Amino acid sequence: MSSKKKAENYSQVNFYKNGKFSLVDLSIQGKEFKTQISKSKKGGNLYLIPAMVDLKTYLGEPGNDLAETLTSLERVALTGGYERVLVHSNAERLLKNKEDIQFVNQSNKVTIQAVGSATKGNHEMSELFEMYSAGSKVFALPGRAAVNSGLTQRIQQYINNFKGNLMVNPYDDQIRNTAQVAETPITTSLGLSGAPDMSEYSIVERDIAIAKYNCAPIHFSGITTKESVDAIAQAKKDGIQVSCDVSIFSLCFTDEDLVDYNSNLKLFPFLRSKGHQTALIDGLKKGTIDAIASYHQPQIIEDKKCEFSFAKYGVISLQTFLPLAIKHVIPRIGWERFVESTSANPAIIARAEHSNQYILIDTESTWELNKKTNQSLSNNSPIWGKEMKGEVIGRFKL
C-alpha cells in the first residue's frame, strides 16, 4: 500500500458494533486497542468495521499459477480487508473431490474456503458428501451457465440433506450462446453479441420454483437485472429460502463504459444499463440483495491485452473493492447496509461463523494501483494507474 500512515492513537472513529455505528475515541497500542464513547458529535474519515467475507473469488492455481496462487491470494485478500474468501472452480480445474477441497482450504491470516463443484463438468453429480466431509459447506454449478432443471433439483435435494448451500449462476446460455455482453442498445451499436435480460431472470424464476418444491435454500450469484431483483423480493415475501449477491462492478460500471472496448471491462456477470443498476442499489437498500461480492478473477496479460472478442472474462478486485465501494456504493446505500452485505450476511451464506476480526479504514487515504502497490500476480483492472481513496490501515481482534 502507498499510505505510510500508522494506526496508533486515533480519535473520533466510526465504530460498527451490534448492527449500528457509534462515534468513539480509539486508542491503539500495538495490536491492542481500546474504545470509549466520544464526546465529539462530528464523525471523521476513520471507520472500524468487521473484516469482510467474499463470496466469489477465482484462483489461478492449480493450472494457471501465473495468474494467482494461494500465497498471493492470501496476500491480496489481507490487504483488501478480508477475513474469508470463497474460491470457486476455474476453467483449468474443477474443485470436484475431497483432494481438491483440501488443497484449497486454508486458515491462516485469511481463511480460504473452497466451493465444491456440484458436477464433474458434465451432467454427472460430483461426490458431494465426500467434499462436504472434507470441508466444503457450499457448492456451485461450474461455468457461467445454469444446468438443466432436473439436475439442479436433484443436486439441491441432495445437498439439503446435510444443510449445505447451493450457488447458481442465473444465466441460460442456450438463449444466446455467442453472447459476450448484455444485450442493450449501446452494446448492439458497438457490434457486440449480447444476452437479453430474460437469459438471467428466466433461470431465477425457474430455480425459485425448484427451491420452493424442495423446501431447500438456493443462492443466486451475480444478479444484474431488475426482473431478478423483483422475483427474489417476492420469493422472500413468500417464505422461500433464497439469497443472492451482486458484483461490485455491476454497482460501479454500466454498459456505457464499454464504448471504448476496454477488455478489462469484459466481465461476467455482464454490465447492464443504468436502470438495472438503480434496481440493484434499491435491492441492496431494501435487503432483497444480501451481499456484495468482489468477483476477483485474475488473468494473465496475454488473455486480456487483446481484442475485446478474444479477451477472457474477469478483473482483479479484492484490493480495490473498498475504494470502489467508498466512491460508488456507500454514498447510495449507507455504511450500515454496506457492512451487513460484506460481513454478516455473506458469512451466513458461506455457512461460516463470522470472526472477531476488525479492520480500520481511512476513507481519505489516497493511493494508486500500480506495479508497486498491487498485491496480485495479475494486473487486469480497469482502474489500473488511477488514484483512489480509501484503504485498510489496521487490523485487530475485538
Number of strands: 18
Output the helix-strand order: EEEEEHEHEEEHEHEEHEHEHEHHEHHEE
How would you name the CATH homologous superfamily? Metal-dependent hydrolases
Q: What shape does the CA trace take?
A: globular
Question: What is the CATH architecture annotation?
Answer: Alpha-Beta Barrel
- CATH fold topology: TIM Barrel
Q: Let me know the average pLDDT.
A: 92
How is the topology of this model organized?
Blueprint lengths: L12 E5 L2 E10 L2 E6 L8 E5 L1 E7 L11 H11 L1 E7 L9 H7 L1 E2 L3 E4 L1 E2 L10 H6 L4 E3 L8 H12 L4 E4 L12 E2 L2 H5 L4 E2 L2 H17 L3 E3 L5 H12 L4 E6 H5 L21 H13 L4 E3 L27 H13 L1 H15 L7 E12 L18 E11 L1
Parallel strand pairs: 1-4, 5-6, 6-8, 9-10, 10-11, 11-14, 12-13, 14-15, 15-16
Antiparallel strand pairs: 1-2, 2-3, 4-17, 7-8, 17-18
Helix pairs in contact: 4-6, 6-7, 7-9, 10-11
Which terms summarize this structure?
398 residues, alpha/beta, six-stranded parallel β-sheet, 18 strands, disordered N terminus
Describe this structure in words.
- This protein is of the alpha/beta class and 398 residues long.
- Helix content is 29%, strand content 24%.
- The protein has a single domain, classed as TIM Barrel (Alpha-Beta Barrel).
- A hairpin with a 3-residue loop joins strand 7 and strand 8.
- Helix 6 runs parallel beside helix 7, helix 7 runs parallel beside helix 9 and helix 10 packs across helix 11.
- The two termini are 24 Å apart.
- The N terminus is likely disordered.
Quick description:
With 398 residues, the chain is an alpha/beta fold. The longest helix is centred in the middle third of the chain and has 17 residues, at 198-214. It is built from eleven helices and 18 strands.
